[in-house]
């Protein structure tokens, strides 16, 4: 099939390249000229394991352009994958969705399926349809489909090619058949709904996962009060198939470009329709407090932070990405700097992005240089590299052997045996 993808962010780019891998001819559009120039040269603007290799493999089937018209005219299915960032109020800013809908309308020449791929508030599909209808120069048939994406950064290709389900919010049989044909090679179960239900499923699923994380973080806080172990609790809960072990890792809370934005957007949109989603407000509160509690933990281990040298290992919001959007590391570093601490930091991928925010940090090329002469070491992201650290060496180079672990990657007993003062979450 001939596919157009508008927006080459995380979702758009992965979708485009993966659809090419399935044998389709894909045209990716973005307004940013430089990004498109880079993509034409095979340069991927994001850190996503395997994506460059997959683009190289499929380069005969993928093209990049800034010309929406060229792309829309020739495509049978057009994906809208532009950003829906949060406004300061928490509500989703869907300006770009409206702009793209108008752009598509202006060049709609034949029946096409317009797929809403970005995460959007419920009823956006209705607006997309209305906007296109109002702006088409001549009467032309088209369908809008909601097809939310569930891929995770760091495992985006695998998530796209091996999804748990393919969600299609459709209004017509014609659109449904085209979309099912397109995704047939993935061999995954289809969930077919109306458009509004599909839009809600995406917000409800992300918010539920965020809720699961805040729930286990609340349990971790209780475990600390009574000297229990949250990892054992999560294991005991997780064996129940109705609960499941995934997303029950306590820590310094969720970050990234999705959960924080989607939870607050869901609260806002439901408020607009007259429902006060108090449960999700508490999810957000617990998430914020988790970072504050971590600062208190550092203070408990170090007492005064002023002029102390603190080593931060892990800056990205999770492993296998260079993304620091809404990363706990940002709030934590900000608080430490405010208290007058000196920071040395290392991350396998996110140093360049963090440097744009914090110039005053002493960035190092490896964890040992970062740990050298430090008064405490913090684990903020659970990269595999940190799980395999030579802790003996770390202890030798540190000024004092204090580790505050925000991701529970080490065994407290072993750490104590090695002579570390070790604090973690909920243990
Ligand atoms: C999330 C969803 O998992 C995807 O299904 C969805 O498609 C995506 O948002 C999106 O809406 O685009 P992502 O933000 O890439 O994916 O990352 P996750 O792996 O879900 O992690 C989110 C945050 O939760 C991270 O900060 C992670 O450290 C934290 N987390 C996750 C925990 O603190 N504990 C856990 O047990 C799991």
- Mean pLDDT, as a whole number? 97
Name the overall outline: elongated
- Largest sheet entry: 6 strands, parallel
List unreliable stretches of 5+ residues.
none
What is the topology, as strand order, of the major beta sheet? 3-2-1-4-5-6
Beginning-to-end CA distance, first to last residue: 53 Å
Rg over CA atoms, rounded to whole Å, is 23 Å
- The appropriate CATH architecture of the largest domain is 3-Layer(aba) Sandwich
CATH class call of the largest domain: Alpha Beta
How many H/I helices?
A: 18
Count every beta strand, where a strand is a DSSP E run of 2 or more residues.
14
Report what the structure shows.
It is a single chain. This protein is α/β, with parallel strands linked by helices. It has two domains: 2-193, 3-Layer(aba) Sandwich (Rossmann fold), CATH 3.40.50.720; 194-427, 3-Layer(aba) Sandwich (Rossmann fold). The chain has 18 helices and 14 strands. It has helices spanning 10-21, 33-40, 51-57, 68-74, 95-106, 124-135, 156-161, 173-183, 195-226, 230-238, 259-272, 278-302, 328-338, 351-355, 367-371, 384-387, 391-397, 412-417; strands spanning 2-6, 25-29, 62-65, 77-80, 112-116, 142-146, 166-169, 190-193, 309-313, 342-346, 362-363, 376-379, 402-405, 421-423. Strands 3-2-1-4-5-6 form a six-stranded parallel sheet, with helices on both faces. Helix 6 links the parallel strand 5 (112-116) and strand 6. Helix 9 packs across helix 11 and helix 11 (259-272) runs antiparallel to helix 12. The N and C termini lie far apart (53 Å). The model has no long low-confidence stretch (mean pLDDT 97). Uridine-5'-diphosphate-glucuronic acid binds next to helix 9.
């Amino acid at each position: 099939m001939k596919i157009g993808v508008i927006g080459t962010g995380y979702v758009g780019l992965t979708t485009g390249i993966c659809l090419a891998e399935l044998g389709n001819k894909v045209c990716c559009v973005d307004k940013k000229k430089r990004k498109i120039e880079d993509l034409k040269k095979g340069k991927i603007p994001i850190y996503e394991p395997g994506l460059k290799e997959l683009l190289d493999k499929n380069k005969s089937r993928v093209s990049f352009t800034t010309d929406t018209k060229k792309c829309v005219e020739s495509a049978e299915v057009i994906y809208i994958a532009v950003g829906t960032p949060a406004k300061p109020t928490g509500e989703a800013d869907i300006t770009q969705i409206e702009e793209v809908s108008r752009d598509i309308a202006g060049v709609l020449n034949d029946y096409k399926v317009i797929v809403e791929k970005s995460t959007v508030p419920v009823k956006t599909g209705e607006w997309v349809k209305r906007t296109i209808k109002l702006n088409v120069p001549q009467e032309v048939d088209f369908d809008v489909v909601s097809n939310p994406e569930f891929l995770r950064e760091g495992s985006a290709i695998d998530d796209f090619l091996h999804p748990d389900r393919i969600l299609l919010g459709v209004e017509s049989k014609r659109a449904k058949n085209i979309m099912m044909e397109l995704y047939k090679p993935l061999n995954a179960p289809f969930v077919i709904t109306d458009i509004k239900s599909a839009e809600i499923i995406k917000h409800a699923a992300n918010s539920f996962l965020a809720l699961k994380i805040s729930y286990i973080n609340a349990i971790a806080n209780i475990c600390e009060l009574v000297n229990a172990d949250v990892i054992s609790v999560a294991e005991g809960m997780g064996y129940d198939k109705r609960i499941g072990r995934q997303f029950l890792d306590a820590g310094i809370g969720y970050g990234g470009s999705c959960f924080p934005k989607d939870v607050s957007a869901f609260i806002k949109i439901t408020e607009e329709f007259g429902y006060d989603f108090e449960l999700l407000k508490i999810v957000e509160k617990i998430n914020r407090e988790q970072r504050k509690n971590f600062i208190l933990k550092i203070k408990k281990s170090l007492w005064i932070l002023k002029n102390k040298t603190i080593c931060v290992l892990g800056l990205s919001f999770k492993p296998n990405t260079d993304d620091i959007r809404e990363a706990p590391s940002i709030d934590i570093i900000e608080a430490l700097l405010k208290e007058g601490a000196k920071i040395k930091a290392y991350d396998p991928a996110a140093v360049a992005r963090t440097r744009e925010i914090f110039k005053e940090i002493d960035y190092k090329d490896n964890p040992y240089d970062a740990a050298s002469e430090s008064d405490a070491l913090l684990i903020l992201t659970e990269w595999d590299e940190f799980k395999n650290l030579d802790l003996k060496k770390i202890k030798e180079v540190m000024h004092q052997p204090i580790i505050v672990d925000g991701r529970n990657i080490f065994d407290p007993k072993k750490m104590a045996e090695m002579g570390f003062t070790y604090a973690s979450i909920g243990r």
